[in-house]
Design goal:
The complex is a heterotrimer of chains A (264), B (269) and C (240). Chain B has 269 residues and is an alpha+beta fold. In chain B, 26% of the residues lie in helices and 34% in strands. The longest helix of chain B is centred in the C-terminal third of the chain and has 22 residues. In chain C, strands 9, 10, 11, 12, 13 and 14 form a 6-stranded antiparallel sheet that branches. Chain C has a 4-stranded antiparallel sheet with strand order 1-3-6-5, with no helix packed on it. Chain C has a 4-stranded mixed sheet with strand order 2-7-8-4, with no helix packed on it. The N and C termini of chain C lie far apart (72 Å). The chains are: A alpha+beta (264), B alpha+beta (269), C alpha+beta (240).
Amino acid sequence: MKEAEKQKLIDSQGLRVDGRKWAELRPIKIEVGLLTHADGSAYIEQGGNKIIAAVYGPKAAHPKHLELPDRATLRCRYHMAPFSVDERKSPAPSRREIEISKVLREALEPVVFSEYYPRTMIDIFIEVLQSDGGSRCAGLTAASVALADAGIPMKDLVAACAVGKVEGQLVVDICDVEDKEGEADMPVAVIPALGKFSLLQMDGLFTEDEFSKALEVAQDACGKIYEIQKQALKSKYLSERGVAEQSENEGKETTSDVETNEEG
Amino acid sequence: MSVTSQTSFLAKIRSKQVIDSLHSGKRLDGRDLLSYRELKIEKDVINKAEGSASVDLGDTKVLVGVKVAVGPPYADTPNKGVLTVNSEFVPLAYEHFEPGPPGENSIELARVVDRSIRESQAVDLEKLAIVPNETVYVIFVDIYILNHGGNLVGAAELAAVTALLNTKIPKYVASKDGKVEKTEEYISLPMRDCPIITTIAKVNNTILVDPDLEEEQIADAWIAMTLTADGKLCAIQKSGVGAFIPEEITQILKISKEKSAALRESFFK
Amino acid sequence: MSLMFEKRQLVTPGEKLAEGEYIAGENTYKEGNGIYSQMLGLAGVERDRVFVIPLAGCYVPMVEDLVIGKVIDMNMGWFVDINTTSDAVLTVSDMTGKPFGPKLESLSKILAIGDTVIAAVAAYDRTRNPLITVQGSGLGKVSRGILIDVSSAKVPRLIGRKGSMIGMLKQESGCSIIVGRNGRVLIDGRDPKMVDLVIKAVKMIEEQAHTTGLTDKIKTFIETQKDVMKDERSGKTEAN
């Protein structure tokens, strides 16, 4: 980060560094089932984020002492590749990655019906191949799709998004620059069917009103991301390519084409 | 890898006892839902440390020591002092704390306390450069958990802020040849704010403040909210395997504002 | 009381399927007044029971399921991998039909690590290893055939309603095809080309299990391929 010129994060038209309006999501692409060994997998591109999530399980718990008598043990690993950021990051897990692995696991636990698989383990791997702000949220969005791809029963998918504040203005789906130089950063994850937040963190400065508004817009943004997740899962079965995309026009909803049902 | 918690939980009969009590608006120790346990804060308990404080919150015992050194600044903030926060879940504090490098709960606690102090700019790091680009004050905040009675993060943060507010550092000056000289004078750490964490847990859909160990073990989840002296939010951390509806979050914010202001009034004026 | 999907509609976890006095069937759950899907799958309803046919998921044994397993360990009996979260146990007395006696010759002579068995699930609850039995006709050690893996979620489609799909495959190919409910399929036949054809057909069924009109599609595919193979054979004879 150079101290030289602090670039303006919101221009005179109210547009952000990448030309977005304050409530606009970055382009999102989700591909389902791309890995052959994992029981479920998903790849997400969101802005410059490139993240793969993979799920193995339910399977026998190894080491055995990690098994629980009445439910499945979830293991979650959020990890950034050394080349994913500007300055090479050591492959050893950092304190940040350890904390994020914990909050992501805790964001998924409430939706997984883990009591269906006692004494087993479900492994969730999230690898950030390229990072561009909001990577824990994009990773969580992908992990949730990977769990569904693996056929693990869940109450719902979990959709995540980071809201921020730059130059006093609330912004949705912060990118790298906004994350580093903004005044607040609030990653959030929502369980849409239940209307509940399973991930909520914040650092920066928010007044009470700013926080309330941020929570509202975050929930809204997660709702849009949820639609993309569903589309991605369905399109694996409705077309040859299991890819769902959302263009720059945020809010445009494409209906999924359900095959007409003839008696077969 | 973050792994689902393995520690044994309360027997169902005890959980039921806790929950039944909550339904009648009281907790097992007699508190009402929004009350803190008995809180004792003592400062300057470790002479060898530049700053220190101990907090007893119910059964929870936390000791914080602040050590100050001088050294190079971070490359991206050459004119600011350095602050690092570490936490030890000392094995003697709880039968399930294992010796070794910090686990995820310890790391999370340290990082939440760090964010609370850093984002509120409680320590005025800009006043801690001695020779810009070369030598700055380096502040180590070490959190030592001595007994686990629940709400470790709340107790730890109170101890950390108290310790910092009472930290005395030797004054260093820059000599003409760019080196630093330690003087005989001692100065207080330049502090600009007094952030306070309120920890609020949800147990069986009941919202309660300052959970004790048993309440934490059966809680769906909890949220730690840090508020600055002028009522702004500077850090939030949801923990645990449950989830919150927006109305609960709003309620938690309201309670946090009240509680942190009250604590600040009692202990930090 | 209302249904919120069309028959065989593709649904995702958390999608609301019904409201009111319905029963939450397989792979659905009830929350408040609504029934929601737990899985990515095809939604259906039978009388008042709403369910979802999953498109993926691990094999959960049910008593009486036919399974094909690989022996992976021995210890006063055999541990058999049946493609589920814990290995199945096959006792010596079950395998030999006699009580286990200390003078019995080496267990590996009866069944060795690496062997394949066809068995039935005798007992299973989610907290213990499944118990399998080879007491029954057609069960026991397997010595010939090709073993392939398919997603266990697709096995019902591979068998078809009242065995229609598997019956068609067997008839068209002339091969012996044993489908384990645990996602393992044993194929045996005199003509290796027919065996290959069956393998291809099974893979196609797995990929397209969610579509309609599949039995006819596969039958047509096999018939076409058989014609191609016939032409190749007569072509070869001519060239000689």
